């Protein structure tokens, strides 16, 4: 498309520890990303949810698609812990995905430890200010 702008989903093709978070985004792999992120075996993706109530079954579709490579999903739902939506819980349980919900900071610290141990972990991390 000559002269046109092509928008692609944000994607880092690999696993990387999260170096920093706050100010509405994350730093990893010598890059920064504004907004929430989803870390799965195929890479790190920009993620639409901006707060816990937006984490629904659709937002978890990539996790469910890659479930054979994931032993546990860490859901970092912001600065305050909040339970996932019932449809999200049903989708994860229906797909056999174990998950734990916590603050974003706790989830990314746990994620970093688990990937350093080469464990099969995924994380959905909601950006915080």
TrEMBL record:
**Pfam families given in the database record:** DUF498
Coiled coil regions in record = none
Q: Which domain of life is it from?
A: Bacteria
* UniProt-recorded name of the protein: Uncharacterized protein
Source species of the chain: Acuticoccus mangrovi
């Amino acid at each position: 498309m000559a002269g046109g702008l092509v928008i692609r989903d944000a994607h880092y093709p690999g696993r990387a520890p999260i170096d920093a978070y706050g100010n509405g985004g994350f730093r990893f792999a010598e890059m920064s990303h504004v907004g929430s992120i989803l870390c799965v075996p195929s890479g790190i993706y920009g993620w639409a949810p901006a707060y816990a109530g937006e984490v629904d079954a659709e937002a978890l579709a990539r996790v469910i698609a890659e479930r054979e490579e994931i032993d546990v999903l860490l859901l970092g739902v912001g600065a305050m812990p909040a339970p996932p939506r019932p449809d999200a819980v049903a989708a994860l349980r229906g797909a056999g995905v174990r998950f734990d919900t916590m603050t974003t900071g706790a989830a990314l610290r746990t994620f970093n430890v688990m990937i350093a141990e080469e464990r099969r972990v995924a994380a959905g991390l909601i950006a915080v200010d």
